[in-house]
């Protein structure tokens, strides 16, 4: 069974006002060697990471464990952590110290300065780069539904953006971000990466911000399209679905089934619609590329991955998780519900997110 691990980026906020707090340095100063907490681009955020797991119940324990550890460390310096993909309240982010981050700020200007976004990265083990690229080629149409399910960033700088995932729009300002074409082989993937870095528009391979890529430091495919999920249950659900997508794609490759020749322009439109609508409206169907209800699109994802989910023992978890997600709504729906219930109190939105992050 393939291993799976997740990285979650979390927002550091004031315990009183809910405003983002630039305290990652203070939080990380007290972190032990056995704690998987790291800094990110801005001082208002932290990243957690699980170890590779094969059982979803073990992954769920780790996700909650590291959210709890991050919360404890933040509270020690008078802050809280919130699994929010963007800050509902206005913020002027503070760049984390380090030469690489300084270079990013110099090279990318306002794009780097305003880039306070929190995503979910799912790593799934692959046997080789060749298998990994074959997987990347075949999962392309199925990434937008993951974005819709995870959408958790409706507010930006104190305003409703009109999007379920505005993080996706902000993240897309990086020069290499978004969907990509079919590569065909590991050699062509590496050649493309070298060519992109060779333009001078990217600092290094770490700035290959494809929606899904080969991980630099692990033998994994890394799917990066999702917002950080407000509810830890949804993190585990997405991890199960991503692992099943990877396994399904690998089986197709071994059976000599070619990847769908979907144009990158269509993939970008599907991602835009997923970020705009979340689960509250129509999405672009990953097979027909025509409008379809969100329930139909997510149902197609379940059908597509059902054999792999079943073989991993995750089919019931995935079905129940999807039903639960549609019943209570994703993070964007939860945030907007609190906003409406409190008469537009964004501090209350953050407070509820803090509670749900470690619930």
From TrEMBL:
**What top-level branch of life does the organism fall under?**
Bacteria
Q: What class of enzyme is it?
A: ligase
Q: Which keywords does UniProt give here?
A: ATP-binding, Ligase, Nucleotide-binding
Might you name a Gene Ontology BP term for this protein? modified amino acid biosynthetic process
Catalysed reaction, written as an equation = L-cysteine + L-glutamate + ATP = gamma-L-glutamyl-L-cysteine + ADP + phosphate + H(+)
Q: What is its EC number?
A: 6.3.2.2
Q: Which GO terms describe its molecular function?
A: ATP binding; glutamate-cysteine ligase activity
Family, as annotated: Belongs to the glutamate--cysteine ligase type 2 family. YbdK subfamily.
Functional note: ATP-dependent carboxylate-amine ligase which exhibits weak glutamate--cysteine ligase activity.
PANTHER family from the UniProt entry: GLUTAMATE--CYSTEINE LIGASE 2-RELATED (PTHR36510)
What name does this protein carry? Putative glutamate--cysteine ligase 2
Query: What is the species listed in this Swiss-Prot or TrEMBL entry?
Result: Streptomyces radiopugnans
